[in-house]
Amino acid sequence: MSDLGHVLVLAGGLSYEREVSIRSGRRVAEVLRAQGVDVETRDTDSSLVPSVLADRPTAVFVTLHGGAGEDGAIRTVLELLGVPYVGAAPDACRVAFDKPTAKAVVRSWGLNTPDSVSLPKETFHDLGASAVLSRIVDSLGLPLFVKPSRGGSALGASIVRSAEELPAAMVGCFAYGDTALIETYIEGVEVAVSVVDLGEGPVALPPVEIVPDGGAYDYAARYTAGRTEFFAPARLGDEAMAACEAMAVAAHSALGLRDVSRTDLIVDGDGKPWFLEVNVAPGMTETSLLPMAAEAAGKDLGALCRGLLEIAAGRG
C-alpha cells in the first residue's frame, strides 16, 4: 500500500454523462497508479455505502459528471460517511451546478456574464410558448445560446441565430432538463481555465483555447478525438490571458469552491472575457481540458491528482 493509503475513485453514475465519467475515472485511476497510489474504482450503486463502511478509504476522487456528481448529493453522502474527498463542499456544488444561480453570484462580484433569462418548461406551457419566446427575442436580441440550467457536456445546448430556430432549440434543451437558460450569445474565442489549489490558494492553469471543426463545441466535438483543435496555452495576448486567469480564480472564490474547478469563458473581440459557467468536477478524459492545461503548465497529471488527494486526506 502506498503512503497515501487506499483511495477511491468514483465514476459512472446515472446521468447523461455516464460514459464520459467512466472515461474520466479510468484516466485518473491510471495516472494515480503510476504514482504508486493504491486505487479502487467504484460506481455509485447500492453497494457503495456498505463497501466504504467495510473498507474506509483515505480519500475519494470524484469523477462523476452531471447530476449527483456535481449537485452536491454524492458529496453529502461522503460527508455522512466521514470520508474526505477532492472538490467543493455540497452547498458550494449546489450553487455552482445551477447555472443561473452561479451567474448571479459571479455578477455580484463584478464579473462579466451574458444577459440571460431562466424559465422552467411549465412557464411556456402555461403562458403560451410563442408569446414568451417572442418577448425573449425582443429583450435579449439575437443570436442567443440555449442550454439546460443544470448539466454539462453541452447536452441540450445550441446556438440560435434566428427567431425561427428558437422553438426547436427549446425542445432540445428540455430533453435534458426542466429549466432552460437562454442568454445573449457572445461572439469570440472560447476558452476554458482550470483552477487548482494545492494548499497555497487557488491558482489558474494556462487557459485552453477551443476551436471545434463544426463551429460548435457540442458533445461530439468534446469527446471525439480530432473533432476539435485545442491550443494550450490559448492564442491570446498577455492582457487577455491574465484577465481570463483572474476571472477563473475570482469565480472559484466567489462560488466558495475548493481544490479544483474549471471555468468556461468567451473572450470577445475587445479581449474582454465573459463568464459562462463553472464545473466542479472537470473532465479528465484524453480530450478533456484540465489535463491539457496541466501539461501546458509543465505539471504531471498524476502528481497533480495525488496532490489534490493529499489535501483532501488532510481534511479528514
TrEMBL record:
<feature type="domain" description="ATP-grasp">
    <location>
        <begin position="103"/>
        <end position="310"/>
    </location>
</feature>
<dbReference type="InterPro" id="IPR005905">
    <property type="entry name" value="D_ala_D_ala"/>
</dbReference>
<dbReference type="InterPro" id="IPR013815">
    <property type="entry name" value="ATP_grasp_subdomain_1"/>
</dbReference>
<dbReference type="InterPro" id="IPR011095">
    <property type="entry name" value="Dala_Dala_lig_C"/>
</dbReference>
<dbReference type="GO" id="GO:0008360">
    <property type="term" value="P:regulation of cell shape"/>
</dbReference>
<feature type="binding site">
    <location>
        <position position="264"/>
    </location>
    <ligand>
        <name>Mg(2+) 1</name>
    </ligand>
</feature>
<feature type="active site">
    <location>
        <position position="288"/>
    </location>
</feature>
<keyword id="KW-0479">Metal-binding</keyword>
<keyword id="KW-0436">Ligase</keyword>
<keyword id="KW-0961">Cell wall biogenesis/degradation</keyword>
<comment type="function">
    <text>Cell wall formation.</text>
</comment>
<dbReference type="GO" id="GO:0009252">
    <property type="term" value="P:peptidoglycan biosynthetic process"/>
</dbReference>
<keyword id="KW-0067">ATP-binding</keyword>
<dbReference type="InterPro" id="IPR016185">
    <property type="entry name" value="PreATP-grasp_dom_sf"/>
</dbReference>
<feature type="binding site">
    <location>
        <position position="277"/>
    </location>
    <ligand>
        <name>Mg(2+) 2</name>
    </ligand>
</feature>
<dbReference type="Pfam" id="PF07478">
    <property type="entry name" value="Dala_Dala_lig_C"/>
</dbReference>
<keyword id="KW-0460">Magnesium</keyword>
<dbReference type="GO" id="GO:0008716">
    <property type="term" value="F:D-alanine-D-alanine ligase activity"/>
</dbReference>
<dbReference type="InterPro" id="IPR011761">
    <property type="entry name" value="ATP-grasp"/>
</dbReference>
<keyword id="KW-0133">Cell shape</keyword>
<dbReference type="GO" id="GO:0005737">
    <property type="term" value="C:cytoplasm"/>
</dbReference>
<keyword id="KW-0464">Manganese</keyword>
<feature type="binding site">
    <location>
        <position position="279"/>
    </location>
    <ligand>
        <name>Mg(2+) 2</name>
    </ligand>
</feature>
<dbReference type="GO" id="GO:0005524">
    <property type="term" value="F:ATP binding"/>
</dbReference>
<keyword id="KW-0963">Cytoplasm</keyword>
<feature type="active site">
    <location>
        <position position="17"/>
    </location>
</feature>
<protein>
    <recommendedName>
        <fullName>D-alanine--D-alanine ligase</fullName>
        <ecNumber>6.3.2.4</ecNumber>
    </recommendedName>
</protein>
<feature type="binding site">
    <location>
        <position position="277"/>
    </location>
    <ligand>
        <name>Mg(2+) 1</name>
    </ligand>
</feature>
<keyword id="KW-0547">Nucleotide-binding</keyword>
<dbReference type="GO" id="GO:0046872">
    <property type="term" value="F:metal ion binding"/>
</dbReference>
<feature type="active site">
    <location>
        <position position="153"/>
    </location>
</feature>
<comment type="similarity">
    <text>Belongs to the D-alanine--D-alanine ligase family.</text>
</comment>
<comment type="pathway">
    <text>Cell wall biogenesis; peptidoglycan biosynthesis.</text>
</comment>
<keyword id="KW-0573">Peptidoglycan synthesis</keyword>
<dbReference type="GO" id="GO:0071555">
    <property type="term" value="P:cell wall organization"/>
</dbReference>
